[in-house]
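Message: A physicist's question: would you kindly supply an amino acid chain plus fold tokens?
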Amino acid sequence: MGIKVFWFLFFQKRTACPPIALHRAERYFAQIMSNSWQPLIKPITLGSGPRAVTLATPVILAPLSGVTDLPFRAVAKSLGAGLVVSEMIASWAMVRENRNTMRMAEVVAGGGPSSVQLAGCEPAAMAEAARIAVGNGADIVDINFGCPVKKVAVGQSAGSALMRDEVLAGNILASTARAVEVPVTLKMRMGWDHASLNAPALAKIAEEAGITMITVHGRTRQQFYEGSADWDFVAQVKAAVKIPVIVNGDITSEARAAEALRRSGADGVMIGRGAYGRPWFLKQVADYLTTGQMSTPPSLAAQKAILLRHYAAIRAHFGEQAGVRLGRKHVSWYSHGLRGSAAFRAQMNRLDNTDAVVALIDEFYDPLIAQGFVRQDELALAA
């Protein structure tokens, strides 16, 4: 088997990518194999003046409600994420200084920039919430025009609903950008549905309003998370503006990240579900996009240590009782791809105290570590 064909089949199996024409794959992997690899990402500077922010590697952890809380962001940032973004925060709750909301808006200290994402439909409230976020340490304020959830998009006329009202959207963007000295960015979808794909037009409005970077999830609101992200459409947004554009959606492997950049022409990638249970993945993607070389993931022993550190941070942040409950999904995600993980998750989800959970983690991981077991999503890489 020719070396180019081998690498094509290898990555098709690893990433479950949609079929790629063979001649495209040959060019793709020939470039990887050559010594003339050209980096697919480079540093991005947002804004100007003393509050400008430079993203050395624009590989960004997506804002995910119920997932990218402070402990998750701290772990991802410590492992090399180029930027971490908070969970979506309602502007009205921020202005009222709701206790839970203020905790959601806490930023990770040190180690690079942090962004707080705001959602709302009132320009004045969004501006005030942005000032509060910056006062609490945010380096960047992100505006959410992408949330598809009915409670937000329909019940509150926020999130992706704002893509249906470009005048109001423009007022929100301009008011927020004027309110703070830090960079203000935007995350949106392609449009409300396929009959109204207005992301390129809204991107122009955003640029004129002072927005410094735009992230586009390659789906419409009506798609939610069904179907496949349309990376090709993001190229229309990139062509419409001069500010940096980030591509988001279905980026679950290094090869898919590279393909998303090639097809969109974007300046960076945002990763959401691909980082579940592997907060080190963003650094792997950054290394690959920069050098063309696959970096080695942490050993299973190191992964266990990261898990235990993350689990302890969750309990410290939320308290013992809530921490045990909220930590279950993260512990489950870390175990995916490990032998016997389904039984481990079933047993772990019934436990309600820290000592029992940590003991079960030891009982599950330690024999696999002793046997030199490799997580299934890493076997193809080692093949």
